[in-house]
Design a protein that fits this description.
The protein has 387 residues and is of the alpha/beta class. It is 52% helix and 10% strand. The chain is elongated, with a radius of gyration of 25 Å.
Length: 387
């Protein structure tokens, strides 16, 4: 029911002037107020202009999304071949946006291209950079954008892992306006994470990305490698690859495990409700105890698996397993608050308890999660992935 509201357009227009004062920090609003801020209306005429530098899959998806929301979009390409690739990628993204109910016209008519950064940035109220993940290239491109744009125009970088601080080192005009604006896949999903050391920049980004594009904006507290989304994705991808290559499971089996984990994560709105509510029984002590056991046994489990893989189940292998168990015994004998891992897990998991309580906690929350699981289980309208 909330999808139509979440993707509707705001009455307010994004203003990239240096003296712009955002009317509200939408990220701090309660859900009802956030929904009320996204009321359908046409943008003032003429529409604001968005510059797209880097017109691959991500850049073209950004272009299609901005155009679908009523902005005039200009992409910078280096030659006619890139122009054709840009148009094709934007059209492909547009098809997905139409299927999701975001784009309404049959084709993207608000997107055009130019052949220089200066021409692309002229008159733009916001610039989105999405060139390949190469530090030197990003620094060169962003420095040119910085030189071409008037002061006050924010420059968002879609960098997957590199920080905006690194990327903006070569900027001579205003390095602080280079901000992290990292999406998942704009044509497929509405998630985006943003970071700036300037609170006013964050408020303006929320005003643009949340209120006018209908995206789910996560403002980050500080810079981090991979931000949030890619850091978690990298961890999952690395673990999956190791499990597959070490013979624990096949790629299909790893995908099945990840799909079930994803279902519970989606049903619980993320990890906190699952960790504390479903696994920990609604108590921090419960999930801490399980996490403590799990992390305490990591060295024993990993080394034990390695011993079995190398030496098999014969006498030598069994003898080494007994030795590992003996060496691990002192740590496993520690109980309760004497266990050093317990204090570590309590520290890291306490914010999850706070989020669990914010969601309401208790049996009522678990019941809502169960209803969401049932809905996902019964989603027989989902098409199969294989033929």
């Amino acid at each position: 029911p909330a999808i139509g509201t979440a993707f509707s357009r705001s009455r307010r227009r994004f203003n990239a002037r240096a003296d712009h004062e955002p009317t509200t920090a939408v990220a701090a609003m309660p859900p009802a107020a956030r929904s009320a801020a996204r009321t359908s209306s046409l943008y003032a005429s003429p529409p604001d202009r968005i510059a797209i530098i880097g017109t691959g899959v991500i850049g073209a998806s950004w272009a299609a999304l901005f155009a679908a929301r009523g902005f005039d979009v200009v992409g910078m390409v280096r030659n006619e071949h890139e122009a054709k690739l840009f148009a094709a990628a934007a059209s492909e993204a547009w098809v997905r946006l139409r299927a999701r109910g975001i784009a309404r016209e049959a084709a993207p008519t608000r997107i055009r291209h130019v052949f220089s950064i200066e021409e692309c940035c002229a008159g733009a109220v916001y610039v989105q950079e999405s060139v390949p993940e190469n530090l030197r290239l990003k620094q060169q491109v962003v420095a040119q954008i910085d030189a071409a744009c008037p002061r006050g125009v924010l420059i968002g970088t879609s960098s997957s892992f590199l920080s905006a601080s690194l990327i903006s080192l070569s900027c001579a005009v205003d390095p602080s306006r280079v901000v992290t604006v990292h999406p998942s896949l704009p044509a497929w999903d509405n998630f985006v994470e943003v970071f700036s050391s300037e609170p006013s920049h964050v408020a303006r980004l929320v005003d643009l990305l949340d209120c006018q594009l209908g995206m789910d904006v996560v403002p980050l507290g500080r810079e981090s490698h991979g931000h949030v989304l890619n850091a978690m994705l990298l961890s999952l991808a690395t673990t999956s690859a190791l499990l597959i290559r070490s013979g624990v499971c096949s790629a299909a089996e790893a995908d099945r495990a990840a799909s079930h984990m994803g279902k519970l994560m989606y049903a619980g709105g993320g990890g906190s409700a699952n960790y504390v509510g479903l696994i920990g029984g609604g108590k921090l002590d419960g999930v801490v105890a399980i996490a403590t056991d799990g992390y305490t046994n990591v060295p024993l489990g990993m080394l034990g698996s390695a011993v079995t893989a190398v030496f098999g189940h014969g006498l030598l292998g069994r003898a080494l397993l007994w030795l590992l168990q003996l060496l691990h015994a002192p740590l496993s004998l520690l109980e309760g608050w004497l266990h050093p891992m317990r204090a570590i897990q309590t520290y890291f998991l306490s914010p999850c308890l706070d989020e669990y309580r914010r969601l309401g906690g208790g049996d009522a929350l678990c019941h809502r999660i169960l209803q969401r699981v049932i809905a996902l289980d019964s989603a027989d309208n989902l098409p199969p992935l294989s033929d």
